[in-house]
Design a protein that fits this description.
The structure holds two protein chains of two kinds. By secondary structure, chain A is mainly alpha-helical. Chain A is built from 13 helices and three strands; from the N terminus they run H-H-H-E-E-E-H-H-H-H-H-H-H-H-H-H. The radius of gyration of chain B is 35 Å and the shape is elongated. Classes of the chains: A mainly alpha, B alpha+beta.
Chain lengths: ~375, ~675
């Protein structure tokens, strides 16, 4: 491999262009969705836009950096990365370190900057799984060597994340691991039985917490209690419905005026649907579709198995978050507190996603 | 080793790619369903939550008297409101507001603590106070202007006007009766609200569902009304009476010129008065009219031809036994003519006339005069009164009716019945609202005089009128009602009231009445005065008649009626009080030239510019200048002939052209 001619294919525009467009659109949506909220909460309508723009700049810088760091470097760092992520997740549970928002402790506050360790955890898991699966190669078909180690590492992370609690991210990691193991060559029978094993656990987690049960009920029939449990999702529907095909125009959303809670984070797509209509939603879906397909294409043409798995892992991570977030806002999935990558407000998510994109660009350049 | 080189891994990758494609495709399909298929349905729900309608109290039309004087107006005042959810420092805000608004801090704080998006803090306050509030620049506290009803004449015609409530809705009197006209379009501001109920975008007011405000012109003459209230009030105070009414009617048209009720109230602060003082008792309360009924007994008997004015009856020397009871006269008379029976108000004489006429026939006439049925006046709460049917009337009941006991009537019925005599026997329908015009000055409705029926012949009416002039003569019961220089005809009444406890006629509670008209030859005014439960001497001729005299002489003067210098000559008004022909009577005669001179003085100067004035304004101004005004078209004045600025001394009349505005 080493003697092969190193060639740099430059920036993969099929990745870069959708990403730039999505980030740009994201900033616009974040501003439009958050300006009233920011004015109300912070007294500065640009508050969230400013923060998001800063994270955007940091993210793009790190993306360019990642683009030039050979991805093989992460392979060597996969265990330290796992340890750091795990450490940070444990640190969240230590009183005094975590920042509590709405009953959940998901952020670490350090020197005025808040950071979500679970974002890093997802990234380091992707690196670890890619490295490990590439190393094991054909042994992946074996349960004890192919599936078990990954499953245990992932379960440890999921357990820590569930303690925050953050069922959304836990579910994402679980689903993502299934896909990756499937890609890595784990037998379908094993995967299917594993899923069956985890379903009762998931059901128990939902039933255990009232708000999760409520979200589930709201998903099943949001109109049952429009002022209560269905409030969130119904206002998302209303936003979409008000938008129609062409939307009510940028900045003209009504639902963002405190009807739709957190319009700039998890429900950013609803505001897109209202202001830019089906057209705007379509554009975002197509851009993400391009990004995902291109990520998979990059994986297929990567020069080694590790790079392939890493590219697949990162692409699937982005793709899963996109699908689950969108599925939630259109009412196809029960409400989860998950941001829409590149669009929603949220520094950690944006920076980590951009780093992932940088890694993808790196893999793409070294075909 | 590359992924591409392994077939199974490529297939699995394709499967995952397909999964993502299908996922995104499903989401797009769902978005299509939400945004295109269920579009209208969802948008409808969203709009319902977002759009809020703020209804502003409607404007209210003005009410004018017959001369165009304002009796009820709407003025713009300030109101202070708050959005409690926006106020952070509620106690601080409350303290600041309470200082300016002069309201207790607690009550303001209570309002601010309400879980509502909008509360009124204080409504309808002076612009100076709202300006002070706005200078504070309090977050979440706002100011708006509202229209407030104001009655510039205060108590004047208050019982007719009634009043309107906080939201400009008519609550009593004409305000309520004509609410439909006076109320303007509800200004609805459709605004969008955020989830906190704060309006963020206000659309244009919706087009009004109905036409704008209408203005009323009443038949009331503010000056006569004022005099009636003043004279009545002082009489009621002097006699320590419970209350009283005074109604002035134009007999030829049925127009009510004044309707005074005491005790009075001020509609601007109506809530500070007892609710029973709001009632327009002249139409809502019935009383036993007493001897005033003898005028109608006379009319009926003469019309039926059962007696002539000179027919004589033996008056039993003051004691007459009827149906087991003894009826007394105040004076003991032996033989009196029919005319004298009425003039001296002999109850026994009346019974004898009545018995000759017959109860049933008398009742028929009373009904023709409008008793026991509503007059149909455009006022709220009118009562009909009551007369016993022949079947239910015992002999004593029948006898009582001939001098007006045992029946009930409203003041308005009584004055209208007397007006029928004054009007040559024709009963008119009384009315208060002369004209309704819309905001642009177009006439929407006009009330025209309406004859209800002919009650007695013209000849009988004239005969009755001439006999009734005797009442104010020296021999009559009410010399105090005589007006210098004018012939007065009328009838007194002093009715016993039924004591609600004993259910028998009270010896102390009386209703003193005088109802009459003037000038006799060409009646311009019918005036009724009722004093309820005066203390001391309760005779209508002593208590009520002076009010008649004051109001009558003042109103005649106001109407510029020319007194008859030859009243001395007697004739049909021969029995007029001697006082009226005394040298003092020259005084009112001098009034007319004086009035004329004032008019001429005013007419020095130049002709004003009438353009853009409404018809009413033009008429008023023209009248003030003593000009004959000729109106052409409708709407607002656009042109005039002669041109403005020419000397008034050369102008007698002015022609003014109107055009509807906005065209």
């Amino acid at each position: 491999m080493a003697d092969k001619k190193r060639r740099d294919a430059g920036y993969d525009l099929m990745i870069l262009i959708p990403v730039i467009l999505l980030i740009g659109l994201g900033l616009v949506v974040v501003y439009s969705a958050s300006s009233n909220l920011a004015e109300h909460r912070m007294g500065d309508s640009y508050f969230y836009l400013k923060k998001q723009a800063v994270f955007c700049a940091i993210g793009i810088g790190l993306m360019i950096l990642a683009r030039y760091i050979p991805c093989t470097l992460y392979a060597k760092l996969s265990y330290p990365l796992l340890l750091i992520s795990g450490g940070l997740l444990v640190l969240l549970l230590v009183p005094g370190f975590g920042r509590r928002v709405g009953g959940a402790c998901r952020w670490l506050s350090m020197g005025g900057i808040s950071f979500q360790p679970s974002e890093l955890a997802k990234f380091s898991l992707a690196v670890y799984v890619a490295y490990s699966m590439a190393k094991k190669g054909a042994k992946m078909a074996s349960f004890s060597r192919g599936m078990l180690p990954h499953l245990m590492v992932a379960c440890a992370f999921v357990f820590l994340i569930l303690l925050q609690p953050d069922l959304g991210t836990a579910v994402i990691i679980g689903a993502w691991l299934m896909i990756l193991l499937f890609l890595g060559g784990v037998r379908i029978f094993q995967l299917a039985s594993l899923s069956l094993l985890f379903l009762p656990l998931l059901a128990w987690l939902i039933l255990k917490a009232d708000y999760r049960l409520n979200r589930w009920m709201a998903f099943l029939d949001p109109w049952e209690d429009p002022q209560g449990i269905g409030f969130h999702i119904i206002h998302s529907f209303l936003a979409f419905g008000s938008g129609g095909i062409f939307g009510v125009g940028l900045g003209n959303s009504k639902q963002k005026l405190f009807y739709l809670p957190e319009p700039h984070t998890d429900f950013a797509l609803s505001i897109v649907g209202e202001e830019l209509g089906l057209l705007g939603v379509g554009v975002i879906i197509v851009l993400f579709g391009m990004l995902i397909m291109r990520g998979i294409k990059v994986a297929l043409s990567a020069r080694d198995l590790y790079s392939s798995y890493l590219a697949l892992g990162l692409t699937c991570l982005i793709g899963l978050q996109v699908i689950i977030n969108m599925g939630v806002v259109v009412g196809l999935l029960p409400t989860k507190g998950l941001p829409l990558p590149l669009i929603s407000y949220g520094g950690s998510s944006l920076v980590v996603t951009l780093i992932s994109i940088g890694v993808l660009l790196n893999i793409s350049s070294r075909r | 080793m590359k992924v591409e080189e392994k077939k199974w891994i490529r297939i699995r990758v394709y499967v995952v790619a397909l999964f993502f494609m299908l996922g995104l495709g499903t989401i797009l399909a769902r978005a299509y369903q939400l945004q295109v298929v269920e579009d209208d349905y969802l948008k409808g729900i969203a709009d319902k939550g977002i759009f809020a309608t703020i209804t502003l109290p409607p404007d209210r039309g003005f009410v004018y008297d017959r001369e165009g004087n304002e009796l009820a107006v709407s003025i713009q005042v300030g109101s202070v409101f708050a959005h409690p959810s926006q106020i952070q420092e509620k106690p601080k805000t409350a303290v600041k507001l309470s200082k300016i608004l002069q309201e207790p801090t607690d009550s303001i704080l209570q309002k601010l603590r309400r879980k509502r998006s909008f509360v009124w803090i204080k409504r309808r306050i002076s612009p100076a106070v709202t300006a002070e509030v706005s200078r504070l620049n309090l977050i979440g506290v706002g100011i708006t202007t509202e229209s407030r009803r104001y009655y510039p004449e205060r108590e004047i015609a208050a019982h007719l006007m009634g009043f309107s409530g906080t939201d400009n809705q008519g609550l009593e009197g004409l305000e309520r009766k004509y609410d439909r006209y006076l109320t303007g379009a509800q200004h609805k501001l459709v605004c969008m609200e955020d989830a906190f109920g704060r309006p963020f975008a206000i659309n244009k007011p919706t087009p009004p569902e109905k036409a704008g405000v209408h203005h009323l012109t009443l038949t009331i003459d503010k000056e006569i009304q004022y005099k009636a209230q003043q004279a009545l009030h002082s009489a009621v105070t002097q006699t320590k009476a419970k209350g009283g009414h005074c109604v002035v009617v134009d007999p030829k048209t049925g127009e009510i010129l004044a309707m005074a009720v005491v005790p009075q109230f001020n509609p601007n602060i109506f809530s500070k008065f007892r609710p029973d003082t709001w009632r327009n008792r002249a139409v809502t309360d019935c009383f036993e009219p007493g001897s005033t009924m003898k005028a109608f007994l006379l009319s009926a008997a003469l019309e039926e031809g059962v007696v002539s004015p000179l027919t004589e009856f033996f008056c039993e020397e003051g004691k007459f036994k009827v149906g087991g009871r003894v009826v007394h006269d105040t004076h003991e008379y032996e033989t009196l003519t029919v005319a004298d029976i009425v003039v001296r108000s002999s109850n026994i004489g009346a019974i004898k006339i009545g018995q000759k006429l017959g109860y049933e026939r008398f009742c028929r006439y009373l009904k023709k005069f409008g008793f026991s049925e509503k007059t149909g006046v455009d006022l709220l709460g009118e009562r009909a009164g009551f007369i016993r049917t022949t079947k239910h009337a015992r002999t004593i009941d029948q006898a009582n009716l001939y001098f007006g006991q045992g029946m009930s009537t409203t003041s308005l019925q009584l004055v209208m019945a007397m007006a029928a005599i004054a009007n040559g026997g024709q009963l008119m329908r009384p009315y208060v609202v002369k004209e309704i015009v819309d905001d642009a000055g177009h006439q929407v409705e006009e009330t025209t005089p309406q004859v209800v029926r002919r009650v007695i012949s013209f000849k009988t009416a004239k005969t009755v009128a001439s006999i009734l002039t005797g009442v104010v003569g020296e021999e009559g019961t009410a010399p105090k009602a005589a007006i210098k220089g004018f012939g007065v005809a009328g009838k007194t009444g002093t009715a016993q009231k039924i004591d609600p406890r004993t259910k028998a006629y009270s010896k102390r509670k009386y209703v003193a009445t005088f109802v009459g008209f003037t000038p006799v030859e060409d009646p311009k005014l019918v005036i009724l005065v009722v004093i309820d439960e005066p203390e001391g001497i309760a005779y209508g001729g002593l208590v009520a008649a002076p009010v008649f005299q004051k109001v009558g002489s003042w109103a005649l003067n106001h109407l510029r009626a020319a007194p008859r210098p030859g009243l001395l000559a007697g004739g049909d008004a021969g029995q007029v009080d001697q006082a009226s022909v005394s040298p003092k009577s020259a005084q009112p005669i001098a009034v007319a030239p004086q009035v004329k001179r004032i008019a001429q003085e005013l007419r020095q100067g130049v002709l004003p510019d009438f353009t853009r004035m409404g018809m009413r304004q033009v008429l008023k101004k023209g009248r003030d200048l003593g000009l004959k005004v000729c109106l052409k078209g409708s709407g607002l004045a656009v042109a005039q002939q002669p041109e403005p600025g020419c000397s008034l001394s050369q102008v007698d009349s002015v022609e003014i052209h109107f055009k509807p505005p906005g065209r």
